[in-house]
Design a protein that fits this description.
The complex is a heterodimer of chains A (about 270) and B (about 150).
Chain A: E1 4-10, E2 18-26, H1 31-43, E3 48-59, H2 61-76, E4 80-84, H3 88-96, E5 105-106, H4 109-121, E6 125-131, H5 138-151, H6 156-176, E7 185-191, E8 195-203, H7 207-222, H8 235-243, E9 246-252, E10 255-263
Parallel strand pairs in A: 2-3, 3-4, 4-5
Antiparallel strand pairs in A: 1-2, 6-7, 7-8, 8-10, 9-10
Chain B: E1 8-15, H1 21-34, H2 39-60, E2 67-74, E3 78-85, H3 90-100, E4 106-108, E5 111-113, H4 118-126, E6 129-133, E7 138-145
Antiparallel strand pairs in B: 1-2, 2-3, 3-7, 4-5, 6-7
The chains are: A alpha/beta (about 270), B alpha+beta (about 150).
């Protein structure tokens, strides 16, 4: 009989998950052991399980079938089973069995915990970029965020709108920021399952200038400043207002911060 | 190449997930390219970024809410890259240091190979200086200077 071991531990990164570490060869005669261990986890009231398989040399069809059954039982209880750390050979074999339709192959335990968060707690994924006042950087930044939101399941239209918003706010931040400071522009994007929060901040040469900028932006947002198509400036904020669901401006010390929320199109 | 003796740094914080690394490396290499570096130089930087970020995600064991931070200081003829994560795992830091100082860690069969750290070896070949700093989290600093060999 080929070498086989398994151990069950609570996940050290997030205690809502259980990690079952498989080691060796998952031959057909291991089905009962897999079944027993997962049933034990379910009986103890834990329904989110990570199957850590980086030390697995072989997965037989019956063992894989058992893993599918375990996933089904966990999903019925509101949980899930995440397959983690499979090597290239095992991944390729499982793909031939159509496993991709049932399991997502995740590289690490951390990735499984992050997937659990994304699916169940919706804490959002945050990206923060600090950049100098170089206008030619903005197209790259907007493409970056666009690619990220597409990856997270947003539509092409949402991604395009986010690009337009970042382009406008980023260019404004650079044009009106103080080029004398290092990393004067800060863009933070927080991507949730159904909305994106974005903040774009620049640093002014003083607190009073930041307050003045915010006053001007707020006047435009409230419509106190009449919007004139012949004006060379100021159309960008109007455009952003149309493309997002919420927008606000605030002065924070010497920073001017614009925050927007864009909900996912359904 | 753009004439700027003042370092122009770009910092990116991203969640510890491998799926984000292609976007991060593409963004940074494009930003480096904008500063006038050749395709070969930026391609090499892209490999360095990819490898160091992958290591930070794989060995950083980041919790939700923690980030990998990449800071690129771009000067006239060189780029310094700082890739950090909050934790310090002494085992992986030791492996990293061994890989940097050319210590072969494992023999398999009759082949003498590095059990880990092949990626770091590539990074070492591609850059001019590679240092690990654990004074605040784990930071790997890679310095690459432009040479005529990087021109394409």
């Amino acid at each position: 009989m080929r070498n086989f071991k398994l151990s069950v531990d609570r996940c050290t990164i997030h205690d809502s998950l259980i990690v079952i570490r498989f080691k060796g060869s998952l031959d057909a005669d291991r089905v009962a052991s897999i079944n027993e261990v997962v049933n034990g986890v379910i009986a103890s009231g834990d329904f989110f399980v990570i199957a850590e398989m980086s030390d697995v040399s072989f997965i037989s069809s019956p063992a894989f079938g058992e893993l599918m059954g375990c996933k089904k039982r966990l999903v019925e209880k509101g949980g899930n089973l995440y397959l983690v750390g499979l090597d290239t050979e095992n991944r390729a074999k499982l793909r031939l069995l159509g496993a991709e339709k049932i399991f997502e192959f995740l590289p690490t335990v951390s990735a499984a915990v992050r997937r659990y968060h994304w699916d169940n707690e919706d804490t959002g994924d945050t990206f923060r970029i600090l950049l100098p006042t170089i206008l030619s950087y903005i197209p790259e930044i907007r493409s970056f965020f666009s690619s990220i939101v597409r990856q997270k399941g947003y539509s092409k239209r949402d991604a395009f709108r986010i690009e337009a918003i970042i382009d406008e706010l980023g260019n404004n931040a650079i044009e009106h920021g103080d080029p004398g400071v290092t990393e004067p522009v800060e863009i933070i994007g927080k991507v949730y399952r159904y909305k994106i929060e974005l903040s774009v901040a620049n640093r002014n040469s003083g607190v009073s200038q930041a307050n003045e900028s915010v006053r001007e932006i707020n006047n435009r947002l409230k419509g106190d400043t009449s919007f004139n198509l012949n004006e060379k400036r100021g159309r960008g904020v109007e455009l952003v207002k149309m493309l997002c669901d919420e927008i606000s401006a605030a002065a924070e010390d010497d920073k001017t911060v614009i925050r927007i929320i864009k909900k996912k199109e359904v | 190449m753009e004439n700027s003796s003042v370092p122009q740094s770009v910092t990116i914080d991203f969640p510890g997930d491998l799926e984000y690394i292609p976007d991060v490396r593409r963004l940074l290499s494009n930003l480096i390219s904008i500063k006038g570096f050749s395709r070969r130089f930026t391609f090499r930087m892209e490999i360095i970024i990819d490898e160091l970020c992958s290591n930070a995600v794989k060995f950083g064991r980041l919790k939700v809410g923690e980030f990998v931070t990449v800071k690129a200081n771009v000067k006239n003829e060189d780029v310094t890259l700082h890739v950090s994560h909050p934790g310090v795992d002494s085992e992986s830091v030791a492996k990293l240091n061994n890989a940097i100082s050319d210590v072969v860690t494992e023999d398999i069969g009759n082949r003498s190979i590095m059990s880990d750290g092949r990626g770091i070896q590539i990074v070492k070949i591609l850059c001019d200086k590679l240092v690990v700093d654990t004074s605040q989290g784990t930071t790997v600093v890679a310095y690459k200077r432009w040479t005529p060999n990087d021109e394409l």
